Input
Amino acid sequence: MANEFRFEDYTDAMTFKPVTDKTIKAFAARQGIEFSPDYTAFLKTHNGFYFDLNRAKPLAEGVETFDSIRYLHGLDTGFEYNDIGVFLAKADLWHQAFRAFCYPVAESHGGNPVVEIFEGKAKGRIYFVDHEVIPEIDELADAGVDLQNADDVLAYMIHQQGCFIEVATSFSDFLAKLVVYDDDGSINVGIRRPLA
Output
């Protein structure tokens, strides 16, 4: 695939020490999260990635992208911007209603999280979250959304609020959709379209 992102092509990029099953399970238990096998494998091999890349080819003709990605999240990375624990500790940004069914796997340049769903019918799917239009929790309750039901919350976020946009069917699919390209001297990593 043209402009395909591959970890092995960027050995000089900021990388993070992989984590063990024990660390992953302990964190997941503390947070009430169920990591997918794909994401668990990623944590054990890469544990995050910072897309501060210095080389790429121009975007191939016919390749379209959706938003650009700055970080892939990891555990205990020592880098506050891509550490899942730091992200989840910011309660004002990530309310319990969302933690009950998804966790962040990446972040865009604009600060929008990319999440993996771990509860309900969309389990394993990856969504881009437009943080500018996430409603307040009382707004969800006023709309009659069952905050204990992942499918109900997600349906509202997709169909009523428009702030959850599906971009991949799994974490592996998400990684396979990443393309790196030079845009007039600026290196970007975007999500290749079609999205889901």
User: Anything to note?
Assistant: The radius of gyration is 17 Å. The CA atoms of residues 64 and 194 lie 8 Å apart. The chain has seven helices and eight strands. Strands lie at 49-50, 65-72, 102-108, 113-117, 126-129, 164-168, 178-183, 186-192.
